[in-house]
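Why do we bother with a discrete structure alphabet at all? Because it lets us treat a fold like text: something you can write down, compare, and reason about line by line. To make this less abstract, here is a complete entry for GPN-loop GTPase 3. Read it the way you would read a sentence in a foreign language you are learning: slowly, and without expecting to understand everything at once.
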Amino acid sequence: MSKYGVMVMGPAGAGKSTFCASLITHLQLNRRSAFYVNLDPAAETFEHQPDLDIKDLISLEDVMEEMKLGPNGGLIYCFEFLMENLDFLTDALESLTEEYLVIIDMPGQIELYTHIPILPTLVKFLTQPGALDMRLCAAYLLEATFVVDRAKYFAGTLSAMSAMILLEVPHLNILSKMDLVKNQIKKKELKRFITPDTTLLDDDPADIGRRKAGVLVEAENADPQNKDALMSGSTFKRLNMAVAGLIESFSMVSYLKLDCTDEDSVQAILSYIDDCIQFHEAQEPRELAGEEFEEEEA
């Protein structure tokens, strides 16, 4: 019997846990079953208590203290330990029915999604035929405020594309926290960021402002300690153009918009998730309760 799940990921600050909480609330209001898995060993507060928490297996704080590791090294150690104890996941998930949507809340360290092979191994374990046989998709969140700084936007988009290539599962890219940019950018301008392309750098407001102020310098002439000077140089602009060109050449990334304060926005994202994992195809028609049946007849 197949399971159905979504792995929520993205850089720190993208609002992953907020989205998970909004998604669970929405599912509950619509009488759907959710199983919440927290795989962030550093997470401490939750709006909805996880049904399965990696901290019951291993915590980042303990690893850092006992192994004398930093936050990133400790996180990787936690995931390596999880991979050695995958029955922790199997025991909790194998009894779930097809009615459940498994929501997996991931850490915010992007190394996990770009070049470390731990997550692909975990995804393969979850999706392979056997005890779990999970139909899984990834939801990669990027904070919408990144569109204000186009260099950050393309850097974040490159990370999203890296995750798509690394994980090889159905993938949704989402601009989260849309409520924060409503008054900062016009709707017509925002549409340009849904599908990234190099023309976004041609009229970069930050670049135009630096040109008007006459602060553009060559990187080789800049003070290495002056971050603003290095990031305003022509070399930095060529780097951004190269990154944007690479993203455009792959033509893999496009974004959905998410505002967790808007119920319709959460529902729209859920519909995309359901389509990716073909959730509704396996569901049996739900029998109406007595009161619901009377309302339908009326």
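What the structure line is telling us, in plain words: Residues 274 and 280 are 7 Å apart (CA to CA). The first helix runs from residue 16 to 29.
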